[in-house]
Amino acid sequence: METVPHPARRHVLAGSAAALVAAGFGRAAAQTAGAPVSSPAGSPAAKPLPAYVAWKDPSAMIVHSSNTVETRRSAFGTSVVTPSNQLYIRNNLPPPSDDIVADRDAWQVAIAGVKNPRTLTVGELKTMGLATVAMVLQCSGNGRGYFPDKPSGTPWQVGAAGCVVWSGVPVRVVAEALGGVAGGMKYMTSTGGEKLPEGIDPKSVMVERSVPLEAMEDALLAWEMNDDPIPLAHGGPLRVIVPGYNGVNNVKYVKQLAFTPEQSEANIQKTGYRLSPPGTKGNPSQPSIWSMAPKSWITSPAPENGSVKAGPLQITGLAFGGLHAVDRVEVSIDGGKTWNQARFVGPDLGRYAWRPFVLAVRLEPGTYTLASRATDATGTVQEEMRIENVSGYVNSSWRDHALQVTVA
Amino acid sequence: METVPHPARRHVLAGSAAALVAAGFGRAAAQTAGAPVSSPAGSPAAKPLPAYVAWKDPSAMIVHSSNTVETRRSAFGTSVVTPSNQLYIRNNLPPPSDDIVADRDAWQVAIAGVKNPRTLTVGELKTMGLATVAMVLQCSGNGRGYFPDKPSGTPWQVGAAGCVVWSGVPVRVVAEALGGVAGGMKYMTSTGGEKLPEGIDPKSVMVERSVPLEAMEDALLAWEMNDDPIPLAHGGPLRVIVPGYNGVNNVKYVKQLAFTPEQSEANIQKTGYRLSPPGTKGNPSQPSIWSMAPKSWITSPAPENGSVKAGPLQITGLAFGGLHAVDRVEVSIDGGKTWNQARFVGPDLGRYAWRPFVLAVRLEPGTYTLASRATDATGTVQEEMRIENVSGYVNSSWRDHALQVTVA
User: Fold this and answer.
1) DSSP 8-state assignment for residue A397
2) Which residues of B touch A165 (CB under 8 A)?
């Protein structure tokens, strides 16, 4: 029996010539031995998958804890959509009992802050409308592992992200059906259906996130992910999807969606997920972790696959714009001294999706620092330096994501 | 533990009104019970998955035999890409030993009919170029189950098809690197690497298919499928991908790709996969099963999910153009007497992909015949009647694919 395996994306390269010319076939010898596959430095690769996500591909994943599981850099391919069994896991609370997916259509969500508030079942939502969006889902802590001062939290590298296709009913269709958003509302506030631990203030642990009202425009109440009912681990039966926004805003097991004049009073909104300058505590005056910025990273060659053979090489990676479409991406092999425009490959799945890219080079033996830099449709360029913050959030620094590669 | 399950896409509907008005929310009652999920009539659902595809989702599949496994109509969602673990299986011969995927980059393919013929490894191909295409992969026998005279062969319904993303090197890039296609060549002929049974003429069983030379333009030598190395069951380590062409032309485990002046002499080309009129035997004068025609089908409501409740309903389905892009799709609820244009949902993955569609209706209690009809970018409309042929190939008849639905 074969499982669908994690790619041993070995780089079988031969020959040598000047770098950065389009890689034709040339004189490359018929060499077939690949570089040995080794574990990423420091990754806890040996931990088994938690039982509730035992259906994930273990060879593609790095297990940090029962609620935090990352996709390996080398497991990303060039097919745009991240398979569900390779998508990262990040839960703020343990998922509810799987009783809630026994009859998915019976799940209820209260819609508040509209003219005619009411509770709707998933079954009813399915009769009201349908839209599908491809979207980068990314944990706001993705890239935290590159902060040198090791902020508390999971030390994600690049794999707390995936490009996922969601289907559901547009939030605006639901709001319109209930008479429209009530006056004076400034936020869309979603409440998760996790079971809260007893004996402590619910506000201290509940998952309730507010996003600016304008985010409702492309938001979905989604029941399908990658052609399947949303798995429990990813927020099924019903998840609010806020394209262009960091993962935490896409509330799982959503049991209430409210249009509100103020942001939630829950800790996860009030003091958590804030861009807190070093030495400060989170507070509502600091920026909330909302929309995503342009970002990209190289997926191949990946350091976990060992050294690269000299000769022609296709450098591949992923680039996205976050709130806006990605417009272009550049690749450097000299740590950012010089840049070359890479080519997008494959279909464009829209504004909120990522795009695989490729740059053909020839590399002589030596050491190279590979980096990539995305630019969105508004001209915003991926930032060079991380924004220093207490919790290690939103690391889009191309410099932090650069790779040292040895070519032999 | 939860596996990523097959959708019990229950239709939870309530209320009643005239058919075919846009489904707003209206007075639909908060009804939550879904229709019971039953097995498709006559499907051999109880057969277990063959060991080499035990990683497929059993609840999404209908197992016909060890080499023929179909996706259930109700397992298709609206996320465009068919997950690998739900993609149909159709092998003309048993797959080779999984030894061949132990070192994928070592797999060799001979390129012939070029100025400088030579053998290349997958590792070498990966240095030569990269392209990604989303493509409907469809067995030429898909829909055979709707032929009333039951031709021999698997009685596929709609599920011997999927929309798959492939990555590899363009065939034209490989041909150019080897000096270009030699003069006088009219076909691209691909040979599969299956182990042939001994003691019989290889030509009688080998998988070797020729397609017109122009098909090379968008063809790939592919090593990746849906972001993973191509699983053995689907032709890994290397498969030739001929977008717009029926499945059989996408030769698995490809060990030779030759540009040839004539079509292959193998039976699978010479006499097999021909559009043979009733009462005739296959011969080279009959059309070969090459490019695909416009086709569509409804995925929800699916008869296997039982009766549908009266009220608002989102009728969904899949439509593709085959060789050309799909331009529009219409839906009928009265067996083709009247048609209504449906709306595509989600991203457009390009000319060779399918597009999910939706039409919002309201249905009163009664019996309905639901049908869909695709039109491609050249104006060719999906055919009403099947092309009668001995082997039950290329059934694109919208009438055959219509569904009787009871609304209660």
Assistant:
1) -
2) 79-81, 346-347
Report the phi/psi class of residue B273: left, alpha or beta, with left for phi > 0 and alpha for psi in -120 to 50: left
Which pLDDT band, with edges at 50, 70 and 90, does A14 fall under? very low
Sort out which chain A residues have CB atoms less than 8 A from B28's CB and list them.
124, 127
**Contact yes or no for A292/A135 (Cβ under 8 A):** no
- B304: three-class secondary structure by DSSP: helix
* Paired tokens of B55: 């990683």
CA-closest candidate to residue B188, choices B208, B211, B171, B206: B211
Indicate the burial class of A121 (C-beta count within 10 angstroms; 0-12, 13-18, 19 or more): buried
Is A341 an 8 Å CB contact of chain B? no
The answer to whether residues A162 and A231 touch, using CB atoms and an 8 Å cutoff, is no
pLDDT digit string (tens) for B216-273? 999 999 999 999 999 999 999 999 999 999 999 999 999 999 999 999 999 999 999 9
Q: What's A271's DSSP letter? A: T
Backbone phi and psi for residue A53, each to the nearest 5 degrees, phi listed first: -125, 30
For the record, the structure tokens of A196 come out as 């809260």
Q: Are B329 and B342 in contact (CB under 8 A)?
A: yes
The angle formed by the CA atoms of residues B28, B29 and B30, to the nearest 5 degrees, is 120
| Residue from the list B51, B52, B177 with its beta carbon closest to the beta carbon of A24 | B177
Structure confidence by residue, pLDDT tens digits, A79-137? 999 999 999 999 999 999 999 999 999 999 999 999 999 999 999 999 999 999 999 99
Closest Cβ opposite residue A346 in set B3, B54, B165: B165
Could you tell me which chain A residue has the CA closest to the CA of B163? A227
ipTM of the prediction:
0.88
What would the pLDDT profile of A102-113 be if each residue is shown by its tens digit? 999 999 999 999
* Spatial contact of B2 and A101, defined as CB atoms under 8 Å apart: yes
φ and ψ at A202, to 5 degrees? -50, -35
The token pair at B93 is 């011969």
User: For the residues A56-75, what does the mean pLDDT come to?
Assistant: 96
How many residues can be counted in chain A? 408
- CB-CB: which of B51, B127, B174 is closest to A1? B51
Domains recognised in chain A with CATH numbers: 98-270 (3.90.420.10)
| Binary contact (B1, A51; C-beta < 8 A) | yes
Round to whole Å and give the CA distance between A121 and A116. Answer: 16
For residue B367 the two structure tokens come to 């019996």
Residues of chain A numbered 20-79 and touching chain B (CB < 8 Å)? 23-25, 28, 30-32, 34, 51-52, 54-55, 76-79
Q: How much of chain B, in percent, has pLDDT values that exceed 90? A: 87
Per residue in B206-233, is it b (16+ CB within 10 Å) or e — as a string? bbbbbbebebbebbbbbbbbbbbbbbbb
Q: Is the Cβ pair B81, A165 closer than 8 Å? A: yes
Give the total residue count for chain B.
408
Q: What is the mean pLDDT of chain A?
A: 90
In the predicted model, is pLDDT for residue B287 greater than 60?
Answer: yes
Chain A CB contacts of B4 below 8 Å: 55, 84-85, 228, 231
The pLDDT score that the predictor gives to residue B46 is 65
Q: Which of B28, B76, B228 sits opposite A7 (nearest CB)?
A: B228
Q: Among partner residues A10, A84, A347, which is closest to B134 by beta-carbon distance?
A: A347
pLDDT tens per residue across span A201-245: 999 999 999 999 999 999 999 999 999 999 999 999 999 999 999
Structural contact between residues A44 and A318, judged by C-beta atoms closer than 8 angstroms: no
Distance CA B170, CA B240 (A): 10
Task: Choose among A6, A156, A10: nearest CA to A85.
Answer: A6
3-state secondary structure of A254: strand
Indicate the SS3 state at residue A276: coil
Q: How far is CA A100 from CA A103, A214, A220, A227, A258, in A?
A: 7, 30, 20, 19, 21
